[in-house]
Hints:
The chain is built from 2 helices and 3 strands, in the order ββααβ. The protein has about 70 residues and is of the alpha+beta class. It has a single domain, classed as Alpha-Beta Plaits, CATH 3.30.70. Strands 1-2-3 form a 3-stranded antiparallel β-sheet, with helices on one face. β1 and β2 form a beta hairpin.
Amino acid sequence: MEKKEYSNGxxxxxxxxxxxxxxxxxxxxLPEVFKPKEKPWINPENASTEAIINQVxxxxxxxxxxxxxxxxx
Length: 73
């Protein structure tokens, strides 16, 4: 499985399943965004950009990363 991306418009969460060690940090820390029993399992519109970036930074395997979306005006 390739990487997948999920966005709330401001930030994009990148998930690389091959790197995931299933530490459960993501959904235990931010269950309104990370719902492993649902599809899609990442719902970034359910939390603030700051909360998402903070939680993703705690991913020990690097399977989850984020980037800020470019805003073209």
